[in-house]
Structure prediction request, 117 residues.
Amino acid sequence: QVQLVESGGGLVQAGGSLRLSCAASGLIFSDYAMGWFRQAPGKVRELVATITSGGTTNYLASVKGRFTISRDNNKNTVLLQMNSLKPEDTAVYYCAAGRSVAYFGSWGQGTQVTVSS
Prediction:
């Protein structure tokens, strides 16, 4: 059974940085696409960034240039480096895994990111 555990969320001032980490188990990690999603109160969940098994990345337009997704296949870990954070980045951030970026079938429990102005 696939298990995804996020860590690294917290409270930060606008302009600051956070690094989220997601530890994966129960899957052949290198075969999976990984993604980070977020959901703010009263809003729908949105895709923030994805990385394919081959390392190709894609980003939500509003985070491009500020966020970086990466993966370490030796450690079964996917990271999201978030710089120049804005209050509108405040949300619960979820890690997800899928056989392709078209469908993510496994999800973590989420980690809260709060950016104060």
